[in-house]
Amino acid sequence: MDAFLQNFFDWPLLLDSLPALLGTGLVNTLILSLFSTALGIVAGMALALLAVSSTRWLTWPAQVFIDVFRGLPAALVILVVGQGLAPVGLSLFGPNPYPLAIVALALISSAYIAEIFRSGIQSVGRGQMNACQALGMTYWSGMRHVIVPQGVRRILPALANQFIAIVKDSSLVYFLGLLTSQRDLFTIGQNAAVNTANLSPLVAAGIVYLLITVPLTHAINHIDRWTNRFSNPGARRDKASTRTLRATRREEALQPQTHASAAEQRS
Q1: Which of 63, 184, 224, 267 has the highest CB neighbour count under 10 A?
Q2: How many structural domains comprise the chain?
Q3: What domain range includes position 157?
C-alpha cells in the first residue's frame, strides 16, 4: 500500500507539477478542444443536413464520411493529417503543429456531432415539416427556422459529452511533436512522470481533466433541465395538478380525524 501511494500520490511531486499543468497544459488543451469542437459543430451540422436529405447523391457522401471518421482510431487520424499534410501545414502555419491537430480533431468530432445532430433533427415529428410546407415554406427554410432549433435544444447533453471526448482525445496530439510552450495536459504529466520515475504528475493531470469535465457535465445537465421546465408548459401543468391532487387527498384524510376530535370534545 505504501508503494502504491508513493508511486501515484507523492504529494510534493503532484503539487510541483500543478503550475505547469495549469499555466501551460490547461490553456493548450482548451485551445485544441474549443477550436476543434467549434469546427466540428459547423461541419457536423452540414453533414447532418446532408444525411437527412431525401436526395441520394447528397446522403451517400455524408454517410461515407461519417462512417470512416467514426470507425478510424483518433490516433491514426491525427497521425495521417499531422504527418501527411505536414508540408502544407509547414508552408501555411510554420512549425506549429496545432492547426493540423485542430483539423484532425475537428474531422473526428464532426463525424460524431453529425450523428448527434441527425438524431436531434429526426426526433422532431414529421408533422412539423408538413406544417411548414403547408405554410408555403421550402424544405430548407423549414429545417432552418423550425426543425433544427427544436432538435438542437434536445441534444445539448450529447454535445457536452462530445466536447469531453475531444478534451481527452487532445492528449494524442503529442504524436506530432510539441515545443515546451505547446504541451497539453497529458504531455506535461507524461514528461514529468518520465523525468521523476513517478506517476504522480500524471495523476495531477487527471485531476485537472476532471476539473474541466465534471463541472461541465453538471452545468449542461442543469441547463437541460431548466430549458425542459420552461419550454414544456404542459408538463408544468401536470406537475401542478399532481401537487394539487396530493394536497386535496391529504386534507380529505385529515377531515375524519378532525370530525372525530370535535365529537370527543362535545361528548
Answers
A1: 184
A2: 1
A3: 2-231
